[in-house]
Automatic annotation (TrEMBL):
Gene3D superfamilies: NAD(P)-binding Rossmann-like Domain. This is D-isomer specific 2-hydroxyacid dehydrogenase catalytic domain-containing protein.
Amino acid sequence: MSKPQVLIAANPIKGIVWSKEEQKSKLGAVAEVFELGETTREQFFKDLAQGGKYANIVAIYRHNESVSAIGLFDKELIEKLPESVKYICHNGAGYDQSE
């Protein structure tokens, strides 16, 4: 059985600097881990669509710096998520970047 797929959505250039390796090793033990590489919301939406590289993700670990590339987690973005997504974990203070 294949591992579930998880997306780490942070700054697409830096990632989550303070825990990047720890996240990969801990999550990598139980899941196939993808790191956000897109720098535009439009490309992110394409990669979420059927046949895209994120089409089968089950969880998103989201850092507030992802807003610089893919914008807010608003209604438009949520509606583009594949049906496989069951968990969205937000790392940041407050919820002003999530609708």
